[in-house]
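User: I'm new to structure prediction. If I give you an amino acid sequence, what do you actually give back? Let's try with this one:
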Amino acid sequence: MHTPAWCTLQSGGSELDAVETGCGQCEIVQCDGSVGFGGSPDEHGETTLDAMIMDGNTMEVGSVADLRHVKNAIGVARKVMQHTKHTLLVGESASLFAVSMGFPYEDLTTQNSLSIYLKWLNQSCQPNYWKNVIPDPSKSCGPYKRAKELNNRKEWSISQRKMNIHNHDTIGMIVIGETGNVAAGTSTNGATHKIQGRVGDSPIAGAGAYADSTVGGAAATGDGDVMMRFLPSYQAVEYMRMGIDPTIACQKVISRIQKYAPEFFGAVICANTTGSYGAACNKIPGFRQFHFMVYTPLLSQPSEQVVDCI
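Assistant: Good question. You get back a string of structure tokens that encode the predicted 3D arrangement of the chain. For your 310 residues, that looks like this:
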């Protein structure tokens, strides 16, 4: 089995082409329900998409967040890089840009996302992402108002994502070409039942992914609200720049987040320009190993790698 990204490289496409094709294929087949249309409805039942793509030669980035009504988020992110001097476009305005670039405007809701949403409404909107509001968000649906008293308890809540702990909640991809060019990208439909307008780590350069052709690349998956505060992909690349092995670089990133959020759900993948790669994840109940796919010229087919979480 040859992956779309690998086929793109084999047929003479660039590393950026490979990232766009690979993430785009995931958007089409709705990988794990966490990428592309018809998954992870927000608290109003709508699916919105986040994606980014980065060129490790020029350090250019194109990204979109809270993209509505357009299925090919990674494709739109690439157009942001190619046809604007900006890095990040968001919301309905990003959709208008996408339409001007020739992407179809269509409904991202499916029977599946609608049923996830209705089931959630029926269970008093549990779980959700509100705090310090009334009525009590742990017991009832909104609309919410801010509570007079702020609860100052240190709360790095592990955003009740145990329902999505299958293994991944984003596609993150690093492509290193034979001449050492590095590209990276991500695509996701974000956190299920998120508050409207929420943007996670995936479309943020240095958080969701990062590429530097003098060093390598990294990508992150997991609880984006927590992880984006630590710029894990940027940090991993910086560790590799210091000569640290990719596996150790990934582990060091996870350890730094653990100090503040011991219960966070997340993993990081790292690869350097010499062809070494590795990954690390945070060990929590229900998430003890992380699986990722590797394709190199030495392998006749994609190889599934597994790391034990730390």
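You can read the tokens as a compact description of the fold. Here is one thing that stands out. The first strand starts at residue 49 and ends at 55.
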